[in-house]
Design brief:
- Helices cover 52% and strands 15% of the residues.
- The protein is built from eleven helices and eleven strands.
- It is globular.
- It has two domains: 209 residues, Alpha-Beta Complex (2-enoyl-CoA Hydratase, Chain A, domain 1), CATH 3.90.226; 46 residues, no CATH class.
- With 302 residues, the chain is of the alpha/beta class.
């Protein structure tokens, strides 16, 4: 007995010590998965909303770096895009294929679309889903001439078409999706609805919103870039989102073809309006500027 009337630890029967260690070890093993889940108990939502531009690719790359750093459970790519630049699309697809975190592409909400470059991004994701009332397809590459008009078929266009078809075929085979329909989206510009995409094994499921999506994918298994097979645990999980910063939003705005054309037009108009003023102040330099401008215009017209 201790001076306080309590039993000393050494006075415990020897058979109780192994039992006590067994109980403590079992408790630690049971608590470890719970503690691990608390560290990765969120799903990160990244919105690919609008034209696929270098600014959009930069945003996705930055968001994916944050995903790797924060060790989240999964990523939902919310897609609503008419397409965009193939180089920017390639950067986004690379981020998806190299990810060690499960990625779920969700075309939504209703009335959204995954067209052109959006098709490749959807095919690249580990799990592809669409909301009712959405569509996917029309992934044919388009080459524009100097006047902004679509050019006729040429060797360069055939090369681009074959390259695009091969790339989407690789993605379809990688994710076990319908290869023929993937190629048709490129060569025939085929575009289909969410219900048809599910029927043709282009997508894995339909979900009207992200909450239901996360309930539906719970328990699904995906193979990551490192070869690890993981089981999604997304039921009733917390959601966080990563948005564009101010600089990325500005670049995305000016990258819009319509905005870019307006800026170019305003810039040309400003130069045209300033020429008479410059001609009065600096006759010699303005004459050369006028000549340069005239030559540039003539060269552009030819």
């Amino acid at each position: 007995m201790s001076p306080y009337g309590l039993p000393r630890y050494s006075s415990l029967p020897g058979a109780l010590w192994p039992l006590l260690c067994l109980v403590l070890g079992t408790l630690l093993m049971l608590l470890q998965p719970v503690m691990a889940k608390d560290n990765a108990s969120t799903v990160r939502i990244i919105s690919i909303d609008g034209t696929i531009t270098p600014a959009m690719a930069s945003y996705v790359d930055r968001a994916m770096e944050g995903v790797q750093r924060d060790d989240v459970e999964a990523v939902v790519l919310r897609i609503d895009t008419p397409g965009g630049l193939s180089t920017a699309m390639d950067d986004i697809v690379d981020d998806i294929l190299q990810s060690d975190v499960p990625l779920i592409a969700w075309v939504g909400p209703s009335n959204a679309r995954a067209a052109s470059a959006g098709v490749y991004i959807t095919y690249a994701a580990h799990i592809a889903a669409m909301a009712p009332g959405t569509n996917i397809g029309s992934a044919s590459p388009i080459q524009l001439g100097g006047d902004g008009e679509e050019t006729g078929e040429s060797t360069a266009e055939r090369k681009a078409m074959n390259d695009a078809a091969a790339r989407i075929e690789n993605l379809a085979r990688l994710r076990d999706r319908n290869v023929n329909r993937a190629i048709s989206a490129v060569r025939d510009a085929e575009n289909i609805t969410a219900d048809k995409a599910l029927e043709l094994d282009i997508t894995d499921l339909t979900a009207p919103n992200i909450d239901i999506l996360l309930q539906e994918v719970d328990g699904m298994q995906v193979v990551l870039a490192n070869g690890e097979t993981v089981t999604l645990d997304t039921a009733d999980i917390a959601q966080t989102s990563e948005s564009m910063n101010v600089f990325e939003e500005f670049l995305q705005l000016v990258s819009d073809p319509t905005i870019a054309y307006l800026l170019l037009s305003f810039g040309a108009l400003g130069i045209f309006l300033e020429l008479p003023i410059l001609a009065g102040l600096y006759p010699e330099s303005s004459a050369s500027s006028v000549s340069f401008s005239a030559c540039t215009r003539l060269a552009h017209c030819q």
